[in-house]
Amino acid sequence: MPADDLASNHSTAPARKGAARLLHVMLLIFAGLMLLLLLFEWMGWPFLRQPLSQLMEKQLQRSVRIDAPFKLRLLGGIRAEARGLWISSPAGFSEPHLVSAQGVALKLRYSDLFGIPPEEPYMIKAINVDHLTAHLVRHENGDSTWQFSKKPSDTPKPFPVIQSLVVKQGTANIQDVLSQAKLKLVFSTDEGAQQSQAVSRVKLDGMFRNQPMHGELITQGFLPIAAQHADQSMDAAPISSQGWLQYGKVELRFDGAVHDALGEQKIKGKLQIKGPSLGELGDLFNVTLPTTSDFALQGNLSKDTTGWHVGIDSAAVGKSQLSGTFHYDPRPEKASLNGELRGKRFILADLAPAFGNDASQPDSDKVFPDKPLNFTSYNRMNANISINIDYVDLGKAFREPIAPFKADLNLNKSKLSLAKISAKTATGSLSGTIAIDAHEEQNRGKAATNLQPSPPNTADKPAQASVPADWQIDLQLEDIDLARLLAVSAQREQAVAKGKVQDSHYVSGKLNGRFDLKGQGESTAQLLGSLNGKVALHVVDGKISHLALEAMGIDAAQAIGLLIKGDANLPMQCAVVNFQAKNGMAYSQLSLVDTDVTTVLLHGDIKLSQEQMNLKLSAYPKNFSPLTARSPILLNGTFKHPEIGIKKTPIAARVLGAIGLGVINPLAAILPFLDPGANDKMNIHQCQQTVRKMQEAAHKAK
Predict the structure, then answer these.
(1) Above 80 in pLDDT, residue 645?
(2) What CA–CA distance (Å, rounded) separates 434 from 220?
(3) What is the pTM of this model?
(4) What is the end-to-end Cα distance of the chain in Å, rounded?
(5) Which residues does residue 150 pair with via DSSP β-bridges, in sequence order?
(6) How many domains, in total, are found in the chain?
(7) What is the CA radius of gyration of the chain?
(8) Which of 259, 487, 542, 609 has its CA 20 to 30 A from that of 414?
(9) What pLDDT, in 10s, does the model give residues 651-665?
(10) Of 179, 207, 240, the domain-final residue
(11) Contact by Cβ (8 Å): 344, 316
(12) Which domain, by its residues, includes 69?
């Protein structure tokens, strides 16, 4: 070996030995540190109790106290145990603390501590507590006891999500101005230490959205229900649960299974609800439901990650019988409701409260209610509901129902529409669209879900200086049989049975026409007071009571004769009703009934805003009558108190003439009542010609 190489080996050998010794020392130090770490982990890091309290105070910006004995585990996540934990309320709150707990066990993932966006809630994996009291308070400005930041620019934190919570004894006092909640929750759970079966209870009392709220949930242990973390929720079965809730006069009962109640809220079971109105049920769950008569429903309820699934087997709303399937999804920016409403029988009067008709507070002067409708509820969600009802009862005035009734209900950005209406009644049909645009308020914010609705001054109260709701009604009538549609009186039926009347219907024929109307308003009365558009109706192949025509013409002789020999319906050569509405005033542009014996013309106006009528029925007999006191019939007064009278001037003139003639010859007194009638005959196919002639006659009669 060369001398140089030998010298090099002698010089590097000590360096190698030094590096080896350094490596061994480092390994020993690392092993020592690992042993020390394991020792501290086994001991539970008791010396970290005070530094941890100080760290939490710094992070939470409030006083924190952790009571010994204390144990902490850091491997695989954070797990802490302490005899007690006390966290103060932030400045500006009078509550003594946010949380005061004894016998605390806490689990956190490291991901729960870092990188949480301001708009996202804090996540707590699990909390086990022997005894706990909490004060959950939120002020109108959004500040809350669970908000751990004082930066004005920060978005207020939502309520924290606790994925697994076990409390042997606990109380939570909730006061939330934004959700109008003032509730007290009392928890008690016995996991079966001395019982064969675990029983847990959660009781609720207080006020919610200005309504008293009470409830109770009874389960077979709360721990498996609340479990969400993988080592429990994957294997834990749903737990049998029964509960009830009373919100105002709305009562709910649930019997089924609950799992992961504080996480994904997996729920499945039977549901029974009853109350004075579906609208009050909608207020509870912050969904848009109509104001109705009293209701009682039962069905199935389930919840998963996509939202709530409701199957209504039977729903009695007033006297109506309905059913349906619905899915409520709270995940989008604005929650959505989709499904199908079905029904065997629906009574239209049961929906009257939705249009402001409150039977408990009758209006002595008005027919149409002026009670503001709850259009602000339209902002709570979007909806797509298909409607398929077998039988719609229109009321006592109608002989036949609508059967069936089909439509699509859509609610989107506060615009409600009942479109694709397809209704069959009396061998005819009704179709079209009814739409209401309640004008979404931009500052109303997101529609909240569960127990966090939009603030009371934005979501559930009428917005100040808001734009009135826009209404649009576009309906078409086609070949509706009036004889089958309209009800008849019992007296008329008896007259038919006795042979005094040939037809029980005063009017018959195929009704056709269209309603094309628009308006604005926050109530039914306001809508009518602003209507614009037209109503055009006509009857094809119609007939009308001869007795009714003669009564309109005040033909005493004809009427007496018909009463003796019996009434008979006359064919209508022309039957038209045409009203034009402008700013709540409806004018009769063309309204008449023409037969072989009489033509009746209706003209005048209706003040919809004041519910006042100013109409005149003028009859023009075409035949000779010995006792005719032909004079227009006046329809005046209000809708609530109509007045029917006779224009006095024509009759008075005839009566004075009769008195004068009677001085000469008593028999001549009958002459003023003789009416030769019209000589020309109307062509039944020329309704327009009839209109022109009767308008000229009406003008001369004024």
Answers:
(1) no
(2) 50
(3) 0.69
(4) 145
(5) none
(6) 2
(7) 40
(8) 609
(9) 544 444 444 444 434
(10) 179
(11) no
(12) 39-179
